[in-house]
């Protein structure tokens, strides 16, 4: 980590943004009982020895509120995509006609919804912890930079305040993502 005022601030901003983005990516892969192409974004297929995301090897669309349609660019990849979907923990069995794969998204029970809401809260807490760890690391870097006479005492205090503002903004973004996903789960 660069021990300058701007370097520490930049590092804090980047790492906190990544934590919030990671949560959004994790939440996108959680099914809510409603079909969405985002449900298969995280699934990778072993395609000729390379782990390839489904979106790079097929057209993914939603035909209705309960069905995801995957049309591979290479028809020979249909069985590979099916295996990858079955191996993922998506909980949906693919239906194929040899050219197109359909994923019927089943209705969720109240018990499943409650478990998923608890799971997304855990995911959110993990990212909050990550943001707080970034704050701790950057505050330590600011203190070290002051000891090494790279920044002044006033700059250190200002830097710590800005890092705290970034922390609050990141936690607010995490809370908003969690609230949105929780509402999707409970209103379907």
Give a verbal description of the structure:
The structure is a single chain. The chain is of the alpha+beta class and 188 residues long. It has 2 domains: 5-28 and 109-186, Topoisomerase I, Chain A, domain 4 (Orthogonal Bundle), CATH 1.10.132; 37-104, Gyrase A, domain 2 (2-Layer Sandwich), CATH 3.30.1360.40. The chain is built from 5 helices and 6 strands; from the N terminus they run H-E-E-H-E-E-H-E-E-H-H. A 4-stranded antiparallel β-sheet has the order 3-4-6-5. A two-stranded antiparallel ribbon has the order 1-2. A hairpin with a 2-residue loop joins strand 1 and strand 2. Helix 4 (110-147) packs antiparallel against helix 5.
What's the CATH H-level superfamily name of the largest domain?
Ribosome-recycling factor
How many structural domains in the coordinates?
2
Task: Bin the strand percentage.
Answer: 5-15%
Quaternary state reads single chain
Whole-number mean pLDDT:
88
Per the principal axes of the C-alpha atoms, what is the gross shape? elongated
Biggest sheet, in brief? Answer: 4 strands, antiparallel
- Which percent bin holds the helix content? 55-70%
* Beta-strand segment tally: 6
């Amino acid at each position: 980590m660069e021990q300058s005022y701007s370097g520490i601030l930049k590092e804090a901003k980047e790492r906190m943004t990544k934590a919030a983005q990671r949560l959004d990516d994790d939440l996108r892969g959680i099914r809510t009982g409603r079909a969405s192409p985002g449900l298969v974004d995280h699934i990778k297929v072993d395609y000729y020895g390379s782990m390839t995301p489904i979106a790079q090897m097929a057209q993914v669309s939603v035909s209705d509120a309960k069905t995801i349609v995957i049309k591979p660019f290479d028809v020979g990849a249909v069985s590979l995509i099916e295996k990858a979907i079955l191996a993922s923990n998506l909980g949906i069995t693919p239906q194929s006609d040899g050219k197109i794969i359909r994923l019927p998204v089943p209705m969720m029970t109240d018990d499943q919804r409650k478990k998923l809401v608890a799971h997304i809260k855990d995911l959110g807490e993990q990212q909050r912890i990550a943001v707080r760890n970034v704050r701790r690391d950057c505050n330590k870097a600011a203190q070290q930079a002051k000891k090494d006479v790279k920044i002044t005492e006033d700059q250190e205090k200002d830097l710590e305040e800005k890092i705290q503002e970034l922390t609050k903004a990141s936690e607010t973004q995490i809370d908003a993502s969690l609230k949105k996903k929780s509402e999707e789960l409970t209103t379907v």
